[in-house]
Amino acid sequence: MSTEDAKYPESPLDRFHAVIPAGGVGTRLWPLSRAAAPKFLHDLTGSGSTLLRATYDRLQPLAGDRVLVVTGEAHRAAVCRQLPEVGDDELVLESEPKDSGAAIGLAAAILHRRDPETIMGSFAADQVISPDDLFQEAVREAIYTAAKGKIVTIGIKPTHPSTGFGYIRSGAALNVEGAPNAMTVAEFVEKPSQEVANKYVEAGDYVWNAGMFVAPVALMLKHLEANQPVLFAGLQEIAEAWDTPQRDEVKARVWPTLPKIAIDYAVAEPAAEAGDVAVVPGTFRWDDVGDFAAIGRLNNAGDVDEVTVLGEGARVFAENASGVVVSDTKRVIALIGIKDVVIVDTPDALLVTTKEHAQLVKGTVDALKASGDTDVL
Fold first, then answer.
1. Is the dihedral of CA 87, 84, 285, 298 positive or negative?
2. Long-range contacts of 188-192 (CB under 8 A, 24+ apart)
């Protein structure tokens, strides 16, 4: 029996600690999602549970109370209301957004200081996943694979040739005990054109990159140090002070100086080139709810005719109409003879567009910011 086996005689699952990055505003879901109330704080599926709460509940059977949440200081109160189980030591607050490299890297550094043998899993708070048991099955495979010294990404088997997601090309099977579907990663590829996306789906060895990572914290930090030494040094300084009275002072001084970079570029892609990344394909249903058309696809909310309706007490009348209505008011919304419409009604802003143009909402937010209309952002 190895030293590692002696220390963890039961299972690599005992070393697992979940991390939930809860950041990003979700500008394509404006005016529902705003800086003060980003999309992960909303119930976007009509399930009665916000995206953040659903993410925590999905991970709890695997991690127990070993869940670290990374979010903005401005969202502390809302996150604590939705996740009262998460204590101060498991809440990492960012004074300003620094992208996923800093957020996930700091979580890894803190967990490594507490126990260098930890296997962490990072799962964004703003994704819709079902059913939970298939997700948990994939995460378990990823944990067993990570225990063999791999950074593991969970890729989603494509249901259609999407141009909105990055892809991962899988390689040879790894033959890991407890992870029969684990494979090497041949390469990460950026969002493709429609023609290329069609080829990826036909090829069968490409999966969507959902941004889910499971890895030994020591291996994550090794690649972070090699590829982003300035970011690594800053995160280490904060992590060393994390469980001491100096936490706030050190974080306030160091965090604003950190470079912004996504975890894919800081760790995953360089690690893949070094042969340290594996992929476990997920067969569960997954959506990052990137726009209002995605809400229509989810089909869990109450429908009126062919209109997906979200909003407690929403008053919608539809005749020969289809689309998505999200209402935060008691105003009656009548749709007659209109197809694939998107209407979002809030007390101080009204959005009217179509599913086809739903991705363009981000441009409206940028224009409002540029014109100084920040009161509705």
1. negative
2. 188/264, 188/268, 188/269, 188/272, 190/166, 191/163, 191/164, 191/165, 191/166, 192/163, 192/167
Buried/exposed code over 312-347 (b: 16+ C-beta within 10 A; e: otherwise): eebbbebeebbbbbbbbeeeebebeebebbbbbbbe
pLDDT in tens, 267-301: 998 998 889 999 999 989 998 887 888 777 775 55
Measured distance CA(274)–CA(291) in Å, rounded? 35
Distance, CA of 69 to CA of 54 (rounded, Å): 13
Residues near 349 by Cβ (< 8 Å), separated by ≥ 6?
30, 31, 376
pLDDT of 44-84, one tens digit each?
A: 887 888 999 999 999 999 999 999 999 998 899 999 999 99
- Give the confidence band of 313 by pLDDT, cuts at 50, 70, 90: confident
pLDDT of residue 174: 93
One-letter amino acid of 6: A
Calculate helix-pair angle for 229-242, 217-227, nearest 10 degrees: 140
Distance CA 47, CA 54 (A): 9
Region 110-129 average pLDDT:
95
Question: What is the C-alpha to C-alpha distance for residues 127 and 55, in angstroms, rounded to an integer?
Answer: 8
Residue 305: Cβ-neighbour burial (10 angstroms; 0-12, 13-18, 19+): middle
- Tell me how far apart the alpha carbons of residues 218 and 13 are, in angstroms, rounded to a whole number: 16
**Residues whose CB is less than 8 angstroms from the CB of residue 139 and which lie 6 or more positions away in sequence, other chains included:** 59, 62, 121, 154, 214
My answer on whether omega of the bond before 229 falls inside 30° of 0, hence cis, is no
Amino acid identity of 168?
I
